[in-house]
Amino acid sequence: MKVLKNELLKQHTSFRVGGPAKVYVVPESIEELEKLIHFLYEEKLPYDIIGNGTNLLVSDAGVDHVVVEIGRALEEITLLPSSHASGEASSLRACGPAGIRKEGCASSEASDENVVKLHASAGTLLSRVARFAAAQELSGMEALGGIPGTIGGAVTMNAGAYGTEMKDVLREVEVLTREGERRMLSVEELGLGYRQSIIPEKGYIVVAATLALKKGDPAEIEARMADYQQRRRDKQPLDKASAGSTFKRPEGYFAGKLIEDTGLRGFRHGGAQVSEKHCGFIVNDGTARAEDIYWLIGEVRKRVLLEQHVELTPEVKLWGEF
User: Fold this and answer.
1) CATH 3.40.50.300, applies to 239-314
2) Active-site positions?
3) How does pLDDT run across 100-127, given as a tens digit for each residue?
4) Looking at the chain, which residues constitute the CATH 3.30.43.10 domain(s)?
5) In which residue ranges of the chain is CATH 3.30.465.10 found?
6) Which tens digits make up the pLDDT trace of 87-105?
7) Three-class SS string for the chain?
């Protein structure tokens, strides 16, 4: 387990801004993570979890609490044996207690020979899961593979793209409770909605997820993946630091279109700018401070509300004092 002091969080966030974390801890196994969370609970020490650092804006002053990274050290993908689909415990060490299915969790899949279960640890990047699935000729992850996050973060916020959400492929999740105890949750227990779940409010930490994918034609899977990747390159400012879509989609509207109609394309403050390429993105031109981005998010919300009478809700999570 690595323990770092005053680690600059700008090195760990996709916005490339953020001050230091007083203590930054990197567990190198699930067992280490379990012990760490139990210790923090017993000592009443506040902490936050970071994965790939997307959808996160950290203040320039940083944070005083402990930051726990669930990243590459906790990255693993495993195909589950067919016995897992019938409710029997898996013999794979990677599954642990996740091998036991709960009643009512997609039971119709047990007899579906086209469904294959995949177990991914929380630190695994979605892009890696998508590539792994494609190599196994499994369909279901094509649209999600371009999201620059980890399985843990994607499950927590029910990430989605191009009409597909995590809940469409998710079957069960292994979590740690606030006390550091392992617990299994079926997809029905997660309260998944548009960019939300019960995980944050319950204080759970995603450890691993079981996905249900379908066997497909490899050429068609690759074609869909290539199509989604090209759409992202064409429409999103992938050459600039950002947190992806800055705002949630308001019901009946598109955030980017509302921002564009308000005349804010290219609007900037300091080193932060509403993307010229896609108004739903706020980007860092390389010189932004967290305060620049925070101010711009607030100003965009204010102007859109004033002119379009629609309230935008940020997707970005805030850490620290602003």
Assistant:
1) no
2) 195, 245, 315
3) 333 334 444 545 789 999 999 999 999 9
4) 2-72
5) 75-224
6) 433 323 333 333 333 333 4
7) CEEEEEEEHHHCCCCCCCCEEEEEEECCCHHHHHHHHHHHHHCCCCEEEECCCCCEEECCCCEEEEEEECCHHHCCEEECCHHHHHCCCCCCCCCHHHHCCCCCCCHHHHHCCCEEEEEEECCCEHHHHHHHHHHCCEECCCCCCCCCCEHHHHHHHCCEECCEEHHHCEEEEEEECCCCCEEEEEHHHHCCECCECCHHHHCCEEEEEEEEEEECCHHHHHHHHHHHHHHHHHHCCCCCEECCCCECCCCCCCHHHHHHHCCCCCCEECCEEECCCCCCCEEECCCCCHHHHHHHHHHHHHHHHHHHCCCCCECCEEECCC
Q: What fold is seen in the domain 2-72?
A: 3.30.43
Question: Residues spanned by CATH 3.90.78.10 within the chain?
Answer: 239-314
| pTM of the entire predicted model | 0.86
Query: Which CATH architecture describes the domain 75-224?
Result: 2-Layer Sandwich (3.30)
* Per-residue model confidence (pLDDT) at position 267: 99
